Structure formats: C-alpha cells, structure tokens
C-alpha cells in the first residue's frame, strides 16, 4: 500500500523529546499532502495525536470546531477542556465544547502514523440529538406533572362530591339532635358532644369546599400579567383583616418588573394564602412589631421572584420539614391546605415555592414565576 511505503520514509522516533509536526511535514511534503487528503475525506472533525499527546495532523473541520480552544494541539489539554459526564471513572465519550456549547461523541482509535503509534480522534457533532433528548425529557416531565395534577384533581373532585352528601346529612342530623336536646334542657354533656361533632363536621366540609375551589380553578389559562395588578387585587381582599390588626402592608415592586407568564387567578390564590399566613403569624405579637412586606425582583435566573416577609415567630426546624405537607397546621382554625395548594400551583408554573427565616425575626415565603417573554 502506498500509505505504508511512504510512512517508512518519515519515521518519527518516539524517543524524540518534542516532535514538531510542521517539521515532519516539511521534511516530507508528499506525505503531509497525503495526510491532509486522507483526513479531509473524513466527514467529521478528525485529528491524529502522537504518543506524547502532541497534534500530528488534523482536518479542516477539526481546526474549525476546536481551533479556537487554547491548547487544542495537546490531547490532554483538549480533553480537560471538553466537559462531559464520565461513567465509572472512564473518559467521557459524550462531551460539550465550552467555547461553542456544542456536543460531541468522541471516538479514539489506535493507528500507526509516520512510523510511530498514534491515537486517531474523531469527534462527531451530536448537538441536535442532545437537544432533542433534552426537549423530550422536559416535555415528558411536564406531561407527567400535568397528568399527576389532573389525576389528583379528578380524585379530589370525586371524593369531594361523594363526601359532600353524607356530610350534609350528618350536619342535618347533628343540628336536629342539638335542637331536641336544647328543647329538652339537657343533658349538658350530650349537648357539648353534639356541638363538638358539629364543629368537626364543619371543619370537614370546609376542607372539601377548599379542595373543590382549587379543583375548579385547575383548567389554567396562562397569559402575560403584571404582578402589581395581582398584588392590588389580593391586598384589596385582605384590607379589612389588616386594618383590624392595625397592620400596614408595604409593597416593594419595581416599576420595570416584566410581566409574568401565569394564570392570574391561580397566582392570586398563592399570594392570598401567603399574605394570610403572614397576617395570622403576627396575630399574637405586639402591634408595633407587626410589619408585612411584599417585595419582588428579577432574580439571577431571570425569573420574577416574589417574597412575602413578616415579623411573626418564624418556624422551628421540625415545622420547616413538614411545611408543605397537606394538612400540616399549627393553628386551631387552620386546615393545613394553604401551602400545599400554593406549591402545586407554583410548580405547575415551573416555579419554586420556598421558605427562609427573615433577618431580624420572622419568615419569608417566596415564589418564582417565569417571565412572559421567556415562556416556552
Ligand atoms: N408566615 C408564617 N409564619 C409562621 N408559620 C407559618 C407561616 N406560614 C405558614 N406557617 C406554618 O405552616 C403551617 C401550614 O400553613 P398552611 O397555610 O398550609 O395551613 P394553615 O394556614 O394552617 O391553614 P389553611 O389551610 O387555612 O391555610 C401553618 O399552620 C403554620 O404553622
Ligand atoms: Mg394558611
């Protein structure tokens, strides 16, 4: 074969301290042309590295795709720059080039080049495949989440419907019995027991109507909405409650806040729940310490972040663990559904609901929402 014949004439000794590929090519221009011709025929980025890691030859595609990387002429330096997930400690085969953001599948082969052993690298651009994979994955996750929401919603609707009738009957019987006992003037223990039963039944029906309210609003319509309008609606609903506690709600919303991509009613529900919790957390503290702020900003991920800050007692570590579990409540009149609903709604919007202690005492409950311009 012509290849092996010419190779003999340009043997590069492996004991040479730093072989210079340009010098080798200059020494045998015919062989260099042959290399270039061979590599040019490869439809992927392709390069030959000597044993010591120095680049021997490369095609135009390799130069175009990796030439901008500093030290692309050294095998180890090049590999150190390409990032991928190594499995079982092995070298990663699928890597990303940081300068272009493109993904490559690397394949290494051993060959003889210029009379010495060499490693031949082919790098196949697999960016499109990786993008398709990533978009399938996020679509699947979204679908899974939506279907979980739907089935939970449907189950809740069925349960609420099924339980409503017997519960209404229980309330009727209890009320009727209470009237009879009251008319008969006792016994007082029975009267108290019936009153307690009525309170429990009322609690159960409050849970059901809350769930039904949530399920009814589950067909979401997302659009561009200004957070300021949402906050106005919520504050109007809570004005009386705040006045009764002599509590001023301060709003810190920047004028330039971009619109969010959200279902308005659902986000109102979230903010209402958080502000209500904040107000309730400050019922027991001295009026002059009561301070409620709603702040918003564009965070580092370019999402709109809303924070509801109070000066209540905050949360213990144990309470923080259970915070978002349905039916967790520390209030005698609480249902423990508020935060669980908030979380479902915010996650549906691909946002995040979070708690953090407030500096100087109190709690911060916050959530993020995507900008309308970034909807996808
Ligand atoms: N701002 C807050 N400060 C301190 N504790 C809070 C705050 N917000 C929530 N919590 C704690 O988290 C629990 C759960 O809140 P969540 O809103 O889910 O239910 P709830 O307020 O008890 O009842 P409801 O379903 O009527 O809202 C509360 O009972 C309270 O212990
Ligand atoms: Mg609540």
TrEMBL record:
Q: Which reaction does it catalyse?
A: ATP + protein L-histidine = ADP + protein N-phospho-L-histidine
Where does the Histidine kinase domain start and stop, copy by copy? 158-373
UniProt KW Transferase keyword: yes
The organism's taxonomy opens as: Bacteria, Pseudomonadati, Pseudomonadota, Gammaproteobacteria, Lysobacterales
Q: Where is the signal peptide?
A: none
Q: What does the record give as EC number?
A: 2.7.13.3
- Which species does this protein come from? Lysobacter enzymogenes
- Give positions of region: Disordered: 1-30
One MF term in the entry's GO annotations: phosphorelay sensor kinase activity
Question: Cross-referenced PROSITE patterns, in alphabetical order?
Answer: HIS_KIN (PS50109)
Keywords of the record, alphabetical order, are:
ATP-binding, Kinase, Nucleotide-binding, Phosphoprotein, Transferase, Two-component regulatory system
- Write down the Pfam families for this protein, in alphabetical order: HATPase_c, HisKA
Q: What is the official name of this protein in its record?
A: histidine kinase
Statement: the UniProt record of this protein carries the keyword Transcription regulation: no
Positions with biased composition (Polar residues): 1-16
